[in-house]
Every structure is written in C-alpha cells, then in structure tokens.
Amino acid sequence: MTGELRYEIAQTAYIKLVLHALKHTTSAVNGVLVGRFDAGKGVVEISDAVPLFHSTHIALLPSLEIALMQIEEHYGGQGLTLVGYFHANERFDDYDLNNVAKNIGDHICRYFPQAAILLLDNRKMEALLKVKDLSPVVQLHTRDEYKHWKLAKSEEKDRLAMKEPAANVMLLDYISTQKWQNIVDFDDHLNDISKDWLNPDVFK
C-alpha cells in the first residue's frame, strides 16, 4: 500500500515530461519515471524521466517492454530504477486516468510496487500560464490496498512535491523559447536510432 508515501520530482524530470506533452498536443503521450525509494523518509525520489510514445505504440506492450529493458539497463548502473509512469490524454478536456494508463501503471508496479502515475492536468497547465502558479501541473495517482488506482485528494496535495520550488518558473522559460521542439521520445528513436531518448541536449 502506498497511502502514506510521498513523491518528490526533480526539476529536469518534471520539465521533460511536460515539454513532451506540449510537443504532441493532438495525441496522447506517455513516459516513465526513474529514481529511488528512500524508505527511511518514506519518499519516492523521482530524479529523471524518459519520454516514451506519442503514437499507436502507446498501448502496445511489446514496444513498452523493449523501451523498459533499455531504460533499466541504462539507469540500473546508477542505482536508479523505474518508480512510476506519466500520461497525458489526447483530449485537452480529459482529466481522467484511462485504462491504458492504469494497465501500464500496473505493469510498472511489477518492477516497483510503490509506483505512482502522474497525469497531466490541463486545467493546472492553464493556471500556470495565466497566474504563474507554482504547484505541479500533474495529478498524483497511487494504488490502494486493493490495487485500484486512486487520485490523491486535495488535502493530500503535499504528497507530491517539486524538489526545486522554482521548477515552474524554469518550465515557463522553456515554454516561451519553444524548447519542446527538441524533445526526443522512444517513438522518435525507433524511427531514427540517431535520435537520443536520453535528451542530453534539452537543458543546455
């Protein structure tokens, strides 16, 4: 059960996920969260994120498995593992966690039982652009003791925190300079292996 756990996301991981969604505004997109679990603090530390798909591959388990194997191989040597999943729905006004996202979240829970799902919330995205809100533009979903995905309640908003409080300020700067154009996901890599899904140049 993950009810008492907190999740902390690093600025680079957070920005990468949102930029990926902004690059493909007419399709659903997804990605995985990488990090470690600090059992002493009860905190899942999300230190990086990998954009995965923006096409029909999003619901295909074989494509997902290929991606996860490469991601695990790369990050495992750094002491990091898969700790969650990111999803952005195709429709701007869709704020619900769909079955595709839940199924992939369940799959990642096989790697890490305390995994969370972060779902892009376009209402929060609009608020960020209008009033420079500092709260994350994603919803936090975790599994209960019955393995059902539940949205964190409003009074539980502190369960998801940004490691760098000014992450949204940096995100707005990246949006204003259209940095999303530089984001590479696994779909792009499968089409052209010269494109690096680690996105080493995004923050340069």
Automatic annotation (TrEMBL):
Pfam families on file: UPF0172 (PF03665)
Annotated ranges, domain MPN: 7-140
Superkingdom of source: Eukaryota
Gene3D superfamilies: Cytidine Deaminase, domain 2
Database matches in InterPro entries: EMC8/9, MPN
One Gene Ontology CC term in the entry: EMC complex
PROSITE patterns named in the record: MPN (PS50249)
Family per similarity comment: Belongs to the EMC8/EMC9 family.
Protein name per its UniProtKB record: MPN domain-containing protein
Organism of derivation: Opuntia streptacantha
